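yo

u said u wanted the structure for the complex thing, so here. seqs first:
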Amino acid sequence: MSDPMRIRAQAQGDKTTVRILVSHEMETGLRRDTAGKLVPAQFIQSISATHNGNTVMNAQWGTSVSKNPFVQFSFKGGKAGDKVAVTWVDNRGDKRTDEAVIA
Amino acid sequence: MERRVFIQGGAAVLGAGMGAGLLPQDALAQNAPGWTKAAFESKTMAEAIKALGAAPATESKDVLLQAPEIAENGNVVRLSAVSNLPGTTQIGFVVEKNPFPLSALFDVPAGTDPSFAVNVKMGQTSNVYALARVGDKLFYSVKEVKVTLGGCGG
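structre next:
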């Protein structure tokens, strides 16, 4: 299991801005280790966020998203105190969900 | 002098390894549901756009891409894109000269702004494209990002 994501959600007017820092290696499968062997790919393929059961972000990623990925997006309708849940799934079936409260 | 030759030789070998751009066969690999494998494993931008099922992309001033002019570290390059086109349903990021150019593809659900930021890796200096899908058409804006240190993990 991986480390928790850091999620910050901030409401300003009718808009909520969400910033997510995921803890993930994002191995491309093109990198070699010190012994010269290719390190197998392991990267997040799908990441989504929900607010009150509604999907507010849904993305597909390739191998070229950075290690420990950062994402920012914003949506309408969030209020302070509401919860935003973020889930990712990688190419090996590992997954993780974390929640944050909108500030 | 000899040392210099050696370093250059090493860099060439490394470059060849990256250029091959082959994903190793991985028994553990199982793709996440809904992941458009064909698009993400395309080796050219044209192929990726084709795999997304869109007509050839056209340039548009209503797609705004923010990217650094010079990225000192290709491992972390912050890209952000905003689409001012009404009815934008998807926003994508493409790094033309990466082994797999398509980097990220965001859906735009109702109520979400067509505006996303993400960090990507860049192997070398390359054009970066922000794509916006409206209906079955793709629009883009492009910017060159100079990379002084590649992010291919070499």
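The first strand of chain B starts at residue 58 and ends at 59. The radius of gyration of chain B is 17 Å.
cya
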